[in-house]
Amino acid sequence: MNITGDMLIGASAVRGQQTRLHAINPATGETLAPVFGGGGEAEAERACALAEAAFDTFRNTPPETRARLLEAIADGIEALGDALIERAHAESGLPLARLQGERGRTAGQLRLFARVLRDGRWQSATLDSALPRRTPPRPDLRLQKIAVGPVAVFGASNFPLAFSVAGGDTASALAAGCPVVVKAHSAHLGTSELVGRVIQKAVADGGLPEGVFSLLVGSGTSIGTALVAHPAIQAVGFTGSRAGGLALVQVASSRPQPIPVYAEMSSINPVFLLPAALRSRGGQIARDLVDSLVLGAGQFCTNPGLVLAQQGDALDAFRAAAVAALQDKAAATMLTPGIHRAYEQGAGQLAEVEGVQRIGLGCAAAGPNQARPALFETTAARFLADHRTQAEVFGPSSLLVVCRDADEMLAVARHLEGQLTATVQADAADHAQAGNLLTVLERKAGRVLFNGYPTGVEVSFAMVHGGPFPATSDTRATSVGASAIERFLRPVCYQNVPAELLPPALQDANPLNLWRLKDGEPVKG
Amino acid sequence: MNITGDMLIGASAVRGQQTRLHAINPATGETLAPVFGGGGEAEAERACALAEAAFDTFRNTPPETRARLLEAIADGIEALGDALIERAHAESGLPLARLQGERGRTAGQLRLFARVLRDGRWQSATLDSALPRRTPPRPDLRLQKIAVGPVAVFGASNFPLAFSVAGGDTASALAAGCPVVVKAHSAHLGTSELVGRVIQKAVADGGLPEGVFSLLVGSGTSIGTALVAHPAIQAVGFTGSRAGGLALVQVASSRPQPIPVYAEMSSINPVFLLPAALRSRGGQIARDLVDSLVLGAGQFCTNPGLVLAQQGDALDAFRAAAVAALQDKAAATMLTPGIHRAYEQGAGQLAEVEGVQRIGLGCAAAGPNQARPALFETTAARFLADHRTQAEVFGPSSLLVVCRDADEMLAVARHLEGQLTATVQADAADHAQAGNLLTVLERKAGRVLFNGYPTGVEVSFAMVHGGPFPATSDTRATSVGASAIERFLRPVCYQNVPAELLPPALQDANPLNLWRLKDGEPVKG
């Protein structure tokens, strides 16, 4: 499949005339062909108008139709073969094996939502029987969830496949029955076009209205702002920086009709090392933690950017092991020159905070845009006193915070902002302290994990990739896992609607064979 | 029980020193004793600090404990007997029978949430088994929903019991495990205190932390703003005007940590009269619709403020029947002098819109603050051209919009803002047209009903009392029915958490006997 540099607006390829953009190979600094034409308000308007025109047809397709669409997209992405992986590698600097894994995850997400669609619990079908002899009579009441409307999706730089054009936001929105308009991330324009053309073809092959999917390209914020401000758009999915997410929240809440924004923004993912665990396996924890820290050049939303431990001999041994493990770690190419600059700047600023020492470094950079892993240390007292220590440094950098005792560790936990994850390393002897921490951490994070590392986000039913502000803009939601579909649904009650006009999920015969809540009890069939 | 005029802050009665307030009997204009002392920021701060201190204990109580709290509140409200009804009558002008019914509804809501708590589906317990031999291994993942944190509740003027101090917002927030701080509506201060003291006593009798409930009193917006801006508050429930709701949304979204606001604001609740129904039973529809219009002096969020019909003989007969039915309807006392003034002003402004005629009136006012029912008429073309015709006139006023044909009726439906309800009167011969309308109306409203009237909101599992903006500020939620609890919950994932630290809902033994989703399938036991 050729990469042309066009936008995909419905069934058309449209050459943007506003700006010229190209991707850059961060490992070499080279410009990658072709030149992309960036669009503006007119193209956002056209894509949104098509999405609106497609919406009623698309949301009312049988769930099986949308399941097949998602599977066709998954198949199509796999069929792109090495061309996709090589382009994504050139645009992102991410290793080939990592991108192959991410492709598997992307296809797996699409297929999970196909399963979710066939299962049908997402519809929340609920039936309350009429009680005609009650005073006053109770009407027949039936509830289902329906799609909210066209959705705007902004992909992430760090997952050019799994959180991008056909990533979790797009998969869950299409599953819900929402047409999707994606703003391509300028760091991986070619990857975006390849995947976008797969979706465009799957929509056409499925006989669906062309407006089900569009892919916009543009530089700066104007096309994204026009997209979120468009009256047809009813929700926004975003993965990226805190500043970027908050800017979209601002646009969305300033509309005549405000809309929800699901922005997954920033998190430093604290790891708490409890005393018994530190004594019994501090060396192993140090090595595993450093592996988690440098994975993918530290460019994960769940990167462990904060480590907390209580002072003492076991901590000294842990620190020595971590510093030793870190010094063998290679510098790795970051996604973009801009992200690399931000890492250098963030790590430099942290080093200058009073009371913060840099205690370990990985190997020096051996090429353009490579990040040198770094470990910093401070005291809990300094951490509590200076909010700069809590800022995310996106990349392979972490801050070890030394606490006097369990109470001070708990105080640090209480002081934290909202997080995607919080991790506890604990042996059985630590469980009393761990229980106290858990009560605090479940208020601070969307996922609390024990004796593991936060990188690695399973795509399943029980996953929550979300969390209190500023980890996300909406703590009620997850952007990974089956529940992600709920972001793009709203409930509607049908009162005394004639049988022949009832939607399939709510018909007496239960043609979709759903689990439904009938008069308060789950029943099937 | 005496009414003292104090605020209830935790276990204490606190005399506000900032302002002096009193309720007014709208039927007589008389001032009602006692004088209430209004508080300010200091009292909001104290109530919120107590709520925060109570939160971890309260959210971790067994669901059965909270179920009993809700039942004790319901019992206590009923035990207030006539004193409560008489005070509410004096403060609101609402008829005694209506208030007795509302008391039953209020107790019923509290008991529904006790059932919801015992049923436990609200916890969304979800278990994904570990797959240790997979590459990479899958961890043990378990999801439950937990309380978001302390909640601020602003009661409605028009339901001094069911949407006020112990109304649906409070019941669902307490059920979720959220401490509640209520700002009493200044129109029914005495009713608020009576109910507040019942909750205060139930909290104490249940051995729960005092911060589980507080009741603030204040004039103007300063105490409400302080409450919503307080960092402890994590969500807001509000029922009232569009201006009031949007002001709270603004405060909530300007916080360093923005929080969700569930504001139920304004709706004109369109009623579509389809041709066959209009021909076969237009006279009956006219009489029933006028009954619905004047019920409770038209002071329902679901009042039918807009009626749409196609021109022709059947419409002429309907119009005549409606005008005749209306002219016998008494004027009725409105809730407050302010609401009465706003009604007079709104109906007056509507009458002055070009192309709008007043075609019917009820009986003239026979006492202070009485609203005279009114019916207006315009054409679909005027309605589409002038947005003033779409403004809510809170009270017994409705606008008949005459459409040329089915297409124009559909155009009007598409033009509508978001609504709480949309109603279709349709016979079997109307079903093709009704199906087209339904596709539009399910996007416009939280509840679509056939061959009934929108007033009357059942408290059950399938109810949705919500809808797209501006009907509410959050279209994903309902403020009535079992699903209302979802507003005050957020999901947390527990990864590889040791068995002895798992919350009860997620323990292998399923001690709460919940329906849970295990590896994607619902199971119990």
TrEMBL record, chains A, B:
Gene3D superfamilies: Aldehyde Dehydrogenase, Chain A, domain 1, Aldehyde Dehydrogenase, Chain A, domain 2
Domain Aldehyde dehydrogenase, first and last residues per copy: 16-463
UniProtKB keywords: Oxidoreductase
Pfam families named among the record's database cross-references: Aldedh
The keyword rRNA-binding appears for this protein: no
InterPro entries the UniProt entry points to: Ald_DH/histidinol_DH, Ald_DH_C, Ald_DH_N, Aldehyde_DH_dom, Aldehyde_DH_Superfamily, ALDH_KGSADH
Keyword Oxidoreductase (UniProt): yes
Family annotation (SUPFAM superfamilies): ALDH-like
Record-linked PANTHER family: ALDEHYDE DEHYDROGENASE-RELATED, SUCCINATE-SEMIALDEHYDE DEHYDROGENASE, MITOCHONDRIAL
Entry protein name: Aldehyde dehydrogenase (NADP(+))
Organism the protein comes from: Cupriavidus malaysiensis
